[in-house]
What we know:
This protein is mainly alpha-helical and about 220 residues long.
Amino acid sequence: MRQGQKDSSDMKEGKKRRDDFPEPEDGNKCRWCRFPLLVALLQLLLGVAVIAVAFLMLAISPSLLTRETPHWAGIILCLVSILGFILYCITYVPDERTSMQFIVKLLYFVLCTIGLVISVLVMAFAGHHYTQTSSFICEQVGEDCVCTLDQDDPIARTFTYEGVSDCEVITGTLTLYFLVQILLNLAQALVCAVGAFILWKHRYQVFFAGLQIGSPSTQRWQKV
């Protein structure tokens, strides 16, 4: 009887240990669980919005500098979103056993980090120009608009915007566009940070560390 009870308890303990093991990855698992499609969609929408606003700013005056019309920031984010869609479509293999999956993940992480830095730079430029244009005193000179920060200062720097028929566009519409760029690039920076964090967490935090060392009743897999 004792031998039978011992065998029965060993069988129950073995069954319990098997139940504590994690389930294998389901190859037919929905792709929504493999990579957050929402992040890639947000990156694409924000990138297109930044490009659109940048070209609207450029339509005001062709003399605006490249740093004042940050379409390049939107283009980079569109590239990041394309990589996100590719990562979404790649068949998931645990532990990055395919070179394609590893390369796309690495590029996505790097471009998300670059996009975050660029978005912060764009916010700095846009904030500086927003402060300037909101303090401009402008006058029409032919087909150009000449603006200064202080009309009484003879050596004050002047800003000439070519092809502007109404200076109200500079002090009103252009200032509003700079504010929109600040908000869009702030959203870009947050989304890029979320995308990079998701990949970092998936690579370095979400894995099975193994069986804990302890009593048999507490041995189980833990997700770290």
